[in-house]
Design a protein that fits this description.
single chain; about 325 residues; alpha/beta; 8-stranded mixed sheet; 12 helices; globular; binds iron/sulfur cluster
């Protein structure tokens, strides 16, 4: 069953004297119990897409998104604030990259988790605090009852992220949006948080939309991947197939730039990377937006932006090259 359906979403930002297009006509589905990864460099439009789902974009700087975002049968784009408030935290929750700036520094951990429960359930304060301790235990935070009294600055980065996950799970949402949830953490804690998300998904049957620039995270956790570049989806498909045999030159570049343990490099050899930088939103190249960085670019790439097309079952790519010719 499809829980979340994004159709032809476009998001513009109004800057002084001009409007820039952050997300262009993207579509994606999230099925019940599925983990979908949205991948790309900073500035590719991933977070703008995620924030659009819960209408958390900074209005009026973000002009009204166009397209459609439905959760089950409810249209979220343009929905009234009271409808959105019933869905946010209750049916769709979000965890952010940096829990230090997302948690309230002057409230204890217990007060912050309990607030979600008091808002969305009929629990009283005592019950909400008891449930908050249970949630902290579920995200494997040691001494959960004691931690209810802590302020965010008294916890490590990994512990704060566990608190954010506990808050997000408080009302047993059907969809969890995780925006770069492990970026600010060291590698060991990153692995623990991913394992925790995976275990919680198995326990609760929720779906996850994970936003990341890290293909290592995708390999760990996602069933389906969508690769974004300059506000567009350039490739999508089942995670295993896409990581094993990417079609789009940008996806190939991202995969080639992952350091691989155990592979011998000649002394002085450099890691492969993608030349250049992602274009800023107001300096989008003509044609295929990846053409200034693409080793396979042809004349047509400078003037015509390729459409996303199906190249095999469940796999789509937007590139003028035929798959197989790379
Ligand atoms: Fe490269 Fe052209 Fe394909 Fe764009 S359309 S990715 S420039 S080959």
């Amino acid at each position: 069953m499809t829980l979340l359906n994004i159709k032809n979403l476009s998001v513009n930002f109004a800057l002084p004297g001009r409007t820039v297009n952050a997300v262009q006509n993207i579509s994606l589905n999230i099925e019940e119990g599925q983990t979908v990864a949205l991948v790309g460099e900073s500035g590719s439009g991933k977070s703008a897409t995620a924030l659009s789902i819960l209408q958390l974009l900074p209005y009026p700087r973000a002009t009204h998104p166009q397209g459609s975002i439905t959760f089950k049968d409810t249209e979220l784009l343009g929905a009234r604030e009271d409808t959105l408030q019933k869905i946010r935290g209750r049916h769709i929750s979000m965890i952010f990259q940096d829990p230090m700036t997302s948690l309230n520094p002057v409230l204890t951990v217990g007060e912050q988790i309990a607030e979600t429960l008091l808002r969305h359930t009929a629990m009283n304060r005592r019950e909400a605090l008891q449930k908050s301790a249970d949630l902290l235990s579920r995200v494997e935070l040691p001494s959960p009852k004691e931690k209810l009294q802590y302020y965010p600055h008294q916890l490590s980065g990994g512990m704060r992220q566990r608190v954010m996950i506990a808050m997000a799970l408080a009302c047993a949402p059907r969809v969890l949006i995780a925006d770069e949830p492990t970026t600010a953490l060291d590698v060991l804690i990153q692995a623990q948080i991913l394992e925790l998300l995976e275990n919680l998904k198995k326990e609760t049957g929720m779906s996850i939309l994970i936003i990341t620039h890290d293909l290592g995270v995708v390999a760990e956790i996602a069933q389906r991947v969508l690769v974004m570049y300059a506000g567009e989806i350039v490739e999508s498909g089942p995670a295993k197939a896409l990581l094993k045999s990417p079609f789009h030159p940008y996806t190939k570049g991202l995969i080639a730039s992952i350091p691989k343990l155990g592979t011998k490099k000649r002394p002085g050899a450099r890691l492969e990377g993608i030349p250049g930088n992602i274009p800023s939103l107001d300096q989008r190249p003509s044609g295929c937006p990846f053409h200034p960085r693409c080793s396979w670019a042809m004349e047509i790439c400078k003037t015509q932006n390729p459409q996303l097309r199906m190249i095999e079952a469940q796999r789509q790519v937007s590139c003028h090259l035929e798959p197989g010719s790379l």
